[in-house]
Amino acid sequence: MSSMEPEIIVGIDFGMNFTGVAYSNRNMLQPKVIQKWPGKLHESSRKVPSIIRYASPGVDPEWGFPCLFNDDKKEWFKQWLDPEFLDQLRTAEPEADLPSTAEVRKWYRDYMRCIYLYISSVLQTQIGAWDSKRIEFLFSLHIVVVFIFFCRVWVGPTVPTTFRSQAISTSLRKLLIEAGFSQGRHTIEFSLTESQASAVDAAKDSLQTFHHGDVMLVCDAGGATTDFALLEQISDNEENPKLQELATIPGIDVGSTNIDLAFEELVDSRLRAGGVQVAENTAWTMMHSPEFQEWKCSFGDPSNNAVPKFLVPVPQLHESVSNRAAGIERGEMAFSHDDFRALFDPQVNRIIALIRNQLNTSVPQNKDVVIPAYESSCGILN
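Given the sequence above, the corresponding structure tokens read:
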């Protein structure tokens, strides 16, 4: 190992809904994923919610699981980190209550500060002298990319998918430095996109065998965006495959948060139709409820085929209350499979349309295309 190469690589996958962290060194057979988080120390979770809450001025913010069900939490702010996109939203929705660029960057910096401090506490118990170690932090990517340094999987020239411009990457790097990263011998890197890292994972670990000339399409459906990678394997080495990108495919604004928002609108319309007197934020609370999130994540699984209705409790509504116009049965709102399918179909149809278009325009007719795996947030592609 070169004296300049990192001793430890930490991959941080900052997503719209959740953030994952994994780390590895040359002595580890595979990366170790952090699975114990504040507020959930007695349960395992491969990711922590990407949310932050400012309880009161001058007090350190809460983050992750402890503020999961608070109304005043800051969430889904990844989508606003691109100032151009935020300006487009303001133009398209002038009445929308959107944050300023400065607010969004503060939330990102403060959230990453919390992540940094927690990673520091975890790794110092594992490796000892934290500041003296050569540690490389890899951001905005799938945690499987931690493998790449140690396994020498090669992918052709790449740029970040979510944050494409150099200006955005530069501003995020500055915020990460302010959050505490890049201290001492620690460095910050932006590497493969999430979809490209998923392609590497599929090429190495899929049951499907890939050969020279095979084309691989990976669809990474996340919380806010869906990204794609179209790559060709240009070597026969299965241990250390070489993948070259055939086309740069822009991400689209399709993700599980759109499903959440569609559900919130559906609930709100039903409550109005039934004239149900409930708190103003009832639809929002039901959208965040564990019952809806569990039904969403398992929708499409054959085990749910026998379930006639998906029931989501209406907060503070007595179990004796039923309202046919609102679809409420004994204090719970009932949803059919068709109701849920209507939430998913617009998202899935856009993904399918883009995939078909890319296959028709970017892949030579003599090439076989393999779609080896899907990276998804709560089963959007189920």
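Residues 313 and 332 are 4 Å apart (CA to CA). Try to locate this feature in the token string yourself.
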